[in-house]
Amino acid sequence: MAGPAWLADSFAALMLLTALYCAARLVLTRTQRRPTERDVDGVHVLMGVAMAGMLAPRALPLPGPAQPGGAIWTSTWGLVFGVATVWFAGRIALSYRPAGRLRPVGSHHLPHLIMSGTMVYMLATAARPAQLSGAGVAAASGPTVHFPLLALILAQFMVGYVMWTADRLPTLARVSAWRPAAAAIAPATPGPAAALASSSTAGRRASAVLAAPWSAGSSSPTALRPPLSPRLASCCNIVMGLVMAYMLIVSL
Q1: CA-CA distance, 85 to 23, in Å (whole number)?
Q2: Is 186 helix (H, G, I), strand (E, B) or coil?
Q3: Would you say 121 and 101 are in contact if contact means Cβ atoms under 8 Å apart?
Q4: Structural Rg of the chain based on CA atoms
Q5: pLDDT above 50 for 126
Q6: What pLDDT is attached to residue 2?
Q7: pTM (two decimals)
Q8: Who wins on pLDDT, 49 or 66?
């Protein structure tokens, strides 16, 4: 299955913009001391650059399989995303409750685990012959790793994840409606903690949503600052999932 050149180039530009935005989030979390998921944003930066190089190898001089020393770059990217896969697997394993159930943080990292593993698969399929360009998949000489059924399953997961995340966007609290979680301020101010329990629906929803990824149990001043936009972070997940699904389908 081949795709038009303009679509691949547009997706490549979108990936670079997403990587730039996630890099800006990493800078802001240090300069403004506002919490964010640094591991997720960092992996998104790397994914954006790698996917852009795979989508438009002729238009963008980015390190990738189609560039000089492609085998070295492919191995390097594969190692990076292999480490990311192990990292998110560890985050999920540490989030198990004694009863054997995942806490919300662990469930939150499951899609990032699969995304990182998908990057390893796509790099493996593009290592020797296949390079995603504007005209689709151009085969060269040499054997390749290719499992169409696995690619189809991963593409279906990405589409489902994108739909689920888009459906949740309206329920994510705005940063302007953010309220610090009660557990974060209970040791210092027990009175306001009780007031927070009966606050507005927006405040409660903000505390519930933001308590999972950003260590609400911490009483440090940084934990009480409003986090960087959860809605824009979810939009990054949507963009990554869409482009990955496209790349997987094109590679079938």
Answers
A1: 20
A2: coil
A3: no
A4: 20
A5: yes
A6: 57
A7: 0.71
A8: 49
